[in-house]
User: Fold these one by one.
Assistant:
Number 1:
Amino acid sequence: MPKLLIKNGRILDPVNGRDEVGDVLIRGGLVVRVGGDQHATGAVAFDATGLVVAPGFIDMHTHLREPGFEHAETIESGSKAAAAGGFTTVCAMPNTRPVNDDATVTRYILERASRSAIVNVLPIGAITEDSAGEKLAAIGSMRQAGCVAISDDGHPVMNSRVMRRAMEFARAFDIPVIDHCEDLNLSAGGDMHEGELAAKLGLRGIPSASEDVMVARDILLAELTGARFHVAHISSKRSLEMVRQAKDRGLKVTCEAMPHHFGLDESDIVPYDSNYKMKPPIRSAMDREALVEALASGVVDAIATDHAPHPGSEKMQEFEQCPFGIIGLETALAVALEALVHTGKLPLAKLVQLFSAGPARILGLDRGHLSPGAPGDVTIFDPDLDWTYDVSRSFSKSANSPWHGHRFRGGPVATVVAGKIVWQRSGERSAGD
Amino acid sequence: MRGLLGIETLERAEIEAVLARAKDFQPAPHESFPRLDAARGRMVVNLFFEASTRTRTSFEIAAKRLGADAISISASTSSVSKGESLVDTLNTLVAMRPDAIIMRHKASGAPHFLARYLPGTPIINAGDGTHEHPTQALLDARTILDHRPSLEGLKVAIIGDIAHSRVARSNVYLLSKFGASIVLCGPASLVPKELASIAPGVSITYDIREAIKGADVAMMLRVQFERLHEPAFPAGEYFSFYGLRLEHLDLMKPDAIVMHPGPINRGREIASDVADSQRSVILNQVENGVAVRMAVLERILCQNC
């Protein structure tokens, strides 16, 4: 059986409370032994001296665009971008063509992934047929086929009764319901956060209230149904307050935060540059501060990317006409280190937890830790790596990133999936070298 | 001057120079505009993606009076109607080497977006979405200065659909730079509260009487129903609460003026007898449109003349 021995790294495994320098041995795709000075004959050795060795990162919010939009991204290209970002597992949102709303599409995605993906791909099924918000999708059979959650991401279920039924049904299958919380009537026509900058630039605003009213509704429905409810890409201060209160009441409510929401605020926006256009929009400094605080205090359960590839031709338009979304797999860890760890807001172990055990727990996956017998997925990174993001060299088929040309401190160095090194950085040097 | 995208980023001195030069271009009473050949051999392209009568015509006249060649293209007759993207359309035009492109577009920021990708060609913003309309603010300032010695300390009420008005934004930036106090007024749903903080000296009221009390200038704006996605005020109540009527004029300074960038909707935002009154300078605005645009084009086209 193939063996990989990761030597002399700083093993950071929050689930097992481990933070020590040592070796990790992976055999047959599974973690075998963790810690200490190990020797294994016939093993491939990886020298991780000076690097952090963490449980494989999980992005629970990725758009791989296949099937249907292969000009923007494929399962193969997206999985390579994921690996280059230190992710060993990505969850594919269902807004493909066709929408992943029945087991046939789920199986197709898994089949394509088994042939072309270099990281684990876990599909997320739709809540409603064609994500149209009317009839419930084949939630049970999608779950059996391998979906780990349901969501109509990007097309929030506006009808509260339909959402209630979805939560009731999902509860029986112990599958989380993820909602892109946006009241589409309140946000209609909006292009950026409703605030001074939008008023100045003559762009229609997306008020925080459009997010907040749906978070409030869904929390109430989660209470009514007992379902596991997860807020996708939470961005506003009020929504965070409501999630905190829901948790205090003991509800099964979780949420995820995106690097562009805690790494940027309105003042960073380049006017009319579509690389700053996404939903929810980049919000105010007040919201950003609240998000950073919520990440530190545990109100936020996971960091995810909302990696949303759009080809240049679609993003090279009048701002109002550009689609929403930016790519984010390759920059997520670096942005998080910069905004959260190097600013002293979060300890490194907490950051690792938010990228690994956090999402695993929400999705009920036995991943995100380095215990013997666990999947041999490891993210190796250098918290001080000096590198500059060049989006033209991205593995993604799209280049819509606000961080092109940004010089980062810290980033991924190697990605291990089931004991195999699927990506390794070349070229850049660590600041410590 | 390297193109003109908006008033927000324009230096005060630059504005003063344009306004002073525009005065030279104003025709004497009962005379036609002077004809010059300062910009002979230069070519400007008028690229209008949105309907316009006065702006397009006055840019065209201004260019011709300076001796430049002016070509006008409207979106419906160009490749835009065949699905060509904005960038491709502009690249095609730029390949024909115009000396400036005058552009109107329904999307806010469209000229700014193009200026980033086509840094070689000066772009003059003739109105972008609900963002800015810089030459309108310049001609409005020229018109006010024809009736007042300076802009400093004036009270200017801008009344109507502020939310969707590029004229309002450009005027706010310009008047604020010169120390005027600006009162924005209209139905609350059409006056975003955030606009009070985009420049110094701006305040907001929802009461037209308060807005025009002691004002030197009332700028009336039409409601842009084409941009309203939903009813923003009770149907039929607009004129009663936000239309400028004769009795309002008594609340203003005795020699106050009434302005309107056009097109006018008589009986909606302005009573017909007000539009036609002695106080109205609406036609002077149109006249100044040519003079101000000549001054702007001269500065952009004739740097090496």
Number 2:
Amino acid sequence: MTIQQLLFYGIATIVVASAAAVVLLRNPVRCALFLVLAFVASAGLWLMAQAEFLALILILVYVGAVMTLFLFVVMMLNIDMATKARSVRAYLPWVLIIVGALLGLFYLATGQGHMAFPQFTDVIWHGPTYSNTKALGEVLYTQYAYPFELAAVLLLIAIIAAISLAHRPTRQARKQDVRRQIQTKRDDCVRVVKMAPEKE
Amino acid sequence: MNELATLCLAIVLLPLAGSIIAGFFGQAIGRTWSHRVTIGLVAAAFLVSLWIAKLVFMGGMSFNGNIYTWASGGSVFPYAFHIGFLVDPLTAVMLMVVTFVSWLVHIYSIGYMVDDDGYQRFFSYISLFTFAMLMLVSANNFLQLFFGWEGVGLVSYLLIGFWFKRESAIAGGLKAFLVNRVGDFGLILGLAVILSYTGSLSYQDVFKQAPTLANTLITIIPGQSWSVVTVACILLFIGAMGKSAQVPLHVWLPESMEGPTPISALIHAATMVTAGVFMVARMSPLYEYSNTALSMVTIIGATGALFTGILALVMFDIKRVVAYSTLSQLGYMMVAMGVSAYPVGMFHLATHACFKALLFLAAGSVIIAMHHEQDMRKMGGLYKYMPITYVSSLIGTLALCALPPFAGFYSKDAIIEAAHFSSITGAHYAYWCVLIGAFVTAVYSFRAFFMTFHGEPRMDEKTRSHLRESPWVVTLPLVVLAIPSVIMGFLLAKPMLYAEPTVFGNAIFIAKSHTVMTSLTEEFHGVWAAIIHGMMTPTFWLVIAGIIVATICYVVKPGLPAMFAERFSVLYRILVNKYGFDEFNDKVIIRGTKAIGQGLFTVGDRIVIDGLVVNGSAWSVRAAALQARLGQTGYIFHYAMVMVVSLIALLSWLILG
Amino acid sequence: MIPITSYLVIGALLFGLGLVGIVINRKNVILLLMCVELLLLAVNTNFIAFTHFWGHVTGEVFVFFILTVAAAEAAIGLAIVMLWFRHRASIDVDEMNLLKG
């Protein structure tokens, strides 16, 4: 067991465990925080795969922005925890079936007869002068320039959509118009009416 | 040759011109000019027909050609339709008969329709009829024949319903048209058979192919195959049954008496009803190859000849009697055609045209004098008041009874002898029918004669004081028609029937195996000898017996018929109901068709089409949608599950498949 | 070294856990969105693994775009949740069945 393997499997354990915690815990704030942990740990995994740019982007964008947003919403909505009884027992069979099916498929796909992945052990290991950022940038601004621009537009649309969805117009405050206030006359506001006196 | 074509074109177009002028401009030019124009043009047509006759009979010319190509399809529909004329002896005879009777009826109508509002319309219609009939007889292809056929049917409908404000006239016109239509259905099918098997509708092409067609078989009902010629001839004869009022499509002719008498004379005695007879004669090259069709013609003709004649014994309307007499004589003509004695049939057609038109016009003269009273029970003793009508009526009746030497004798006796000589199936039955029919003819014709002109006057005093002879425009045609009724047989029997060759020449084709005409010719020894010989046949004595019976019943002892009616009341009632043909048509055919229509409407339309198909498809869509919408539960969990399951299925298929 | 299968197994486990979370979660729609993020994380890990083994950066480009889209989607999804909460005062998933057919 090299250090690399130890590190890898340790971080992997953290990732899976926190993902499980997200699913199983009741308190939504804690679920969100465990999700943050999962993201951070998987960023570590990605670092080990020599994708350092993306790993850091994961932390900055995902954890820093998206999960923060999640936490804001969770806290704003002020959820009553007592009503959150989850019936895990009822859906256990479904769960087992799904997971079992997926794992089975996975095994079939990558097992000996099909794509023969276990043979793949040669990793393309880049040298110390390798800059993932540079490599990504070389491709992103040349070959994938159009998708890049489109992604920017998509983010713009998301901003506009989110704002227009959640925006509440400010209440119309009543403003004072001093000129009109001075110009009022008594006859506009008061009217004298003759009434017969009440009899006893 | 072109001379004949031009003449034929002229003879066809002259009455058409008259019809158009009287029809569209009749109100503008007034009554007198309307009748002058139409009569002048029809007279011109008659003169042209005489000229054509001279060219054909004396000069031996004939013409068969197309004047104008009306339509021709290319490769999609490889048939061509032309307008053309065939002028040969048969045509020439018919042209003369048609134009002659039409001319006389035109003149007669001046007197008959004098106080009618639709005067110009009447003349326009009878000229139009003349045009259509002339197109029919001069046609050289089946399509033109059909055009003329339909044209005469249309004008007949228009004229029967001429007094359209009368309910019975409209009904009569519709009945005539519809029954004709039933016959025309058969005719169209016959045309279709001919067109599909010969590729052409022209007479020349069809007749040339007749021998080969006789051997070609066609299977209509599986297991039964008939020769093409037989099928075509039977179908064509169904058309003739409708037009020439053979049993069972004869029911329209008595009701057609609702029209004015001149047209009864023109259309329903002399010309339109003889179109079927003419057609069979014209198609003799086809009919001779099919003994089955000939037998059918004979049997149906004979049945009509006898049984419709018997019906004339119980009718009281003078026009109905003459109508049933026409039905009977048409049967005689068809019998002649059926036994392959075509010239005899055509000769009877010509003589019958003369004396039957005469009888109708005389009846019309009586009706005018009696102020449009038609019931013979209210007539009697008219001979004192209307001598010319009386004499011409007597001549017509004698001709009808076939007493020598009048015209009817030569033609009718020849038919009876021809039936006797023939050996095809049904000829024996036909012989007995026409023989007994001679007796019946004598009885009913003299019955009508005596009831109308002899005996005690039975009309009321007011009518009797107004009785006088009809104006000259009415009696002139009577006299003119009486002349050929007397001498036509005498003069024309030999050339038309017995000469070798007959004037018809190549127009009529008789197969070698049908020897009726040759037997008749052998028996003929000259017109005088024929009279002597005729007095020795059973026919003659039957006719005399019939006259005696009529005299006894209606002159000597007028109470006798009433006693007979009471004794044989069942038989009498059958006869009065015309053998139940009208009831049958009404109850079975009309009600049956209505019931089928009703059934199709309620079941077919409402239940099947509206309910099942239209509403049903909408309902089934709705039902399916109602079921499908249960899948949209709204629960995200369900949607997620569906997505997951589909994902797993897709992956399984990709990996395992 | 670490075989690729390990990365793929991690990805599969994360994906499965995400699915399970969607299925058994009934009371909290925000949790649902978080499980969707888990799914996306699993896919991203897969892509990174393959990039590492094939050598060219196409996989990472894809991850880049997935991150972008995931961020946008999370934002809008949370906006919708908030609107729903304003009107219904509840984030119970079982109560969100207004699209019932």
Number 3:
Amino acid sequence: MKGKSQIDILHEIQESNPENYVPENLVKKVADTFKTSPAKLYGVVTFYTMFSTKPRGKHIVRVCRSLSCHLADGEKIVKKLKEELGVDFGETTEDKEFTLEESSCLGMCSIAPSVMIDDVPFGNLKEEDIPVILKKVREGVL
Amino acid sequence: MKIYRIHALVCAGAQCIAAGGNGFEDALKEELKKHDLVEEVNIVETGCMGSCQLGPLMVVYPEGVIYTKVRPEDAKEIVEEHFLKGRPVKRLLWKQEEKRFPTLSEVPFFAKQTKIVLRNCGLINPEDINEYIAQGGYEALAKALTEMTSEDVIKVIKDSGLRGRGGAGFPTGQKWEFAYKQQSDAKYIICNADEGDPGAYMDRSILEGDPHSVLEGMAIAGYAIGAQKGYIYVRAEYPLAVKRLEIAIKQAKAAGLLGKNIFGTNFSFDIELRMGAGAFVCGEETALINSIEGKRGEPRKKPPFPAQKGLFGKPTVINNVETLADVPVIIEKGAQFFRKFGTEKSPGTKVFALAGKVNITGLVEVPLGTPLRTIVFDIGGGVPEGHTFKAALTGGPSGGVIPAEHLDAPMDYENLTQLGTIMGSGGLIIMDETSCMVDIAKFFLKFTVDESCGKCTPCREGTRQMLNILEKITSGNGVMEDLDRVEKLGNLIKLTALCGLGQTAPNPVLSTIRYFRDEYIAHIKDKKCPANVCSMRGAKNERKVANRHPA
């Protein structure tokens, strides 16, 4: 644990969890290790948008909602993603494959509109690209 | 050293990868094998070349031939025609206004830039320290450590007039001197790589394309103030930057350029990475410190300033990525060299992330004080045909708009402040007549409402009230008093919010009211959205969206 902060540990917990979240019992454990109260640590977990206290899908779909994507008609991509996945922001598909989230900016303004699935960025998106990409991710070819 | 006939530089920046760069590189390698050219052609994966919108990009040396939007199926033709027969593939060359540009140096987008910060981006393999060293990398650190005292280093940085590129433009040398004078058993250098401004991605490109320039800048800063440890706080949204930084730190340590007794001197310096977790406010320096300590990223009260009492209560200097990347150049070439570029009060260059309704988007580095017109029209190729420039937005959610009548305004810290916006970290979003200014202001307010940490009332409640008023106006239910109310509230928040995020949050609203008051009035009085974006009183508007017609 030397040299690591609570946030680093929370990242590790979440990444190693197939359900992509920080479970409550582990929050308590980390709080003990760092000699802080579970309430304080829970405050940290919920402060940062990338941490989740609820189980999420295998893949996290982050759609960019910055102004550059907005100007490039990114809302159509948002709509299409919601349609294809059948979920709203913060929700997980029934098969537990995808959780849809929004990002304030993925820093890919030149190729707006953009989406990032787990660590893989996608840009210059058109509505018809969405089902193709989702299918590939589902099949594990990306 | 192996000598190659051809060096093929393939951009491996995040945006080129997202545009399909990986597939092309694999296909190219396959073709080289087929034609037994592996020993003759060297493929170099570089960082961002800048014109991401035309990616994936490849530049072929010695000629400097630039290929745009390369697809896996193009690999065969490039190898057979260009690599074997020496005939560049015309259809893939850079195209602008029906003209093809065979080499990089002829393309206006590149020819009109001045690259200091981005000196190595797109030229070297960021995952190989030897390429950075071959470009003169770490010479500045050697010079600082073996020929200069801490005071000398601070003096050079002060003389250069370098100002913080994160947005506020505070003189870097002064910051360092302040921390240097503090007596403490430990001091820290933090590199702020929490680039959260929507529309800004230069820091990401620097970290991905030339991570060692930032490490070197940090080590020099550490030597100057007497710190032995540095942290890079990077967004978790930038996995590729994180990966390349990890590799860079490991290689620098192995080469003895970080760690104990660097260059055999008494100076030891280590760098660790810290990841954010999705909070815009953590780009504010005191919130960032809290986040590195593992706490909620809420800002602290100033004073005490971080230079007095920062990370773990110790004197801390926090510099932005771009600022740090400037440092080695200044140390190596001197303050006077740096002052050759830019203006008296804003020396050097600035990297802008050009985006929005402009023909060529991408990273643009120009001397500070360059007119906006040069950036948008000469470098960016203007707005798409059939549309007109309406305004440019700088500084993201903390900035404001520059309308067409100020297109010739020099882009430097003072001028932008005078125009009611800020330099910010360098996001530059261009808008045409299809953008509604009230909608833009509302868009950024939504962002700040979401990202407000909630610690102080003016920001938490004030921005929410401002958003309510704008929603009222954009739905056709506004009254003229709302305009005064939103202005009054905005000015109040500017004066009373705790940190930079809150103090600048009203800027997009105040600035659009300043230049486009008539547009607000049209929403309120005529119940009309001149750009046809807002749905007034439930009526659906089909947005006209301009498609870019790039090269």
